[in-house]
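Whiteboard transcription, Tuesday session. T.W. wrote the structure tokens on the left side:
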């Protein structure tokens, strides 16, 4: 009996210690994620301003949302941005990772990887200052190149045709380093003896990529595609700094629309409804993307 009670007291102490260690995380998780999420859900059924509570309006915000032409345009622009960034970003990251992986010198490979990864750690405000100075109409080096070929200077981030591609290119330059790092980790896990055996059988570099490299790093490719899809569906910072949704709402993406409704028009309830719909949409798209890529992977294995 004494041993049993000693065992129980020891188990109780371990449980108390475990809960004590988890309590800070649980507290901050509930305070800064669970409570705001529930608050947003309830808020979406009211006509409240940005701060405080309004009257209960039921599904009126959601009905209004699906009649909002600007919301529909923001959805379209978000998908255009995803098309400009997700697949190109993934392909560029894969190609650069393969080139770095073929460099024999570890020092040179590390230096080149650092050059590509360094932009990823820059804050978006620094990114904004860099490209704002590079694209100035009067003194930007990019417009010097444009002028050299006989064209007039372009205000890239204020041009109705160039704004979205310009922000997309900036985003790829900013984020591709993370993709390179993931792909490089996957490539390092492939046994070099597989390539040596394929060369003996007469396989060239293209055959090696098609039948060895790509199938073996497909799980990494699926991960990169999923992460990029989630990140780019949540695009806000670049649009806020570079274009403010313009010109003529050409770069009005969903989260900037939420920001505009909440912080500029003080329609907190309506903004909450948009945010909730976008959250559910991102969850569904992410799940669909995961199972689609998983099905493709199983099909490759068969």
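and on the right, the sequence the group agreed on:
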């Amino acid at each position: 009996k004494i041993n049993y009670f000693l065992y129980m007291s020891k188990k109780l102490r371990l449980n108390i210690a475990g809960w004590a260690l988890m309590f800070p995380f649980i507290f901050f998780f509930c305070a800064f994620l669970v409570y705001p999420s529930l608050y947003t859900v309830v808020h979406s059924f009211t006509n409240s301003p940005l701060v405080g509570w309004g009257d209960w309006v039921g599904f009126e915000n959601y009905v209004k949302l699906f009649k909002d032409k600007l919301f529909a345009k923001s959805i379209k622009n978000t998908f255009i941005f995803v098309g400009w960034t997700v697949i190109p970003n993934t392909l560029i990251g894969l190609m650069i990772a393969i080139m770095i992986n073929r460099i024999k010198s570890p020092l040179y490979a590390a230096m080149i990887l650092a050059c590509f990864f360094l932009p990823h750690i820059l804050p978006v405000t620094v990114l904004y200052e860099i490209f704002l100075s590079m694209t100035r109409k009067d003194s930007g080096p990019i417009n010097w190149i444009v002028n050299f070929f006989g064209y007039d200077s372009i205000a890239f981030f204020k041009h109705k045709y160039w704004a979205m591609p310009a922000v997309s290119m900036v985003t790829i330059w900013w984020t591709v380093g993370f993709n390179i790092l993931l792909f490089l980790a996957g490539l390092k896990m492939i046994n070099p003896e597989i390539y040596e055996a394929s060369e003996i059988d007469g396989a060239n570099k293209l055959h090696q990529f098609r039948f060895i490299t790509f199938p073996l790093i497909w799980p990494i490719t699926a991960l990169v595609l999923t992460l990029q899809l989630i990140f780019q569906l949540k695009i806000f910072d670049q649009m806020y700094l570079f274009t403010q949704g313009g010109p003529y709402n050409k770069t009005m993406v969903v989260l900037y629309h939420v920001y505009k409704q909440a912080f500029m028009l003080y329609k907190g309830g309506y903004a909450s409804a948009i945010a909730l719909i976008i959250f559910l949409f991102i969850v569904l798209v992410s799940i669909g993307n995961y199972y689609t890529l998983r099905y493709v992977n199983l099909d490759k294995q068969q």
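Someone added at the bottom: The chain has a mean pLDDT of 88.
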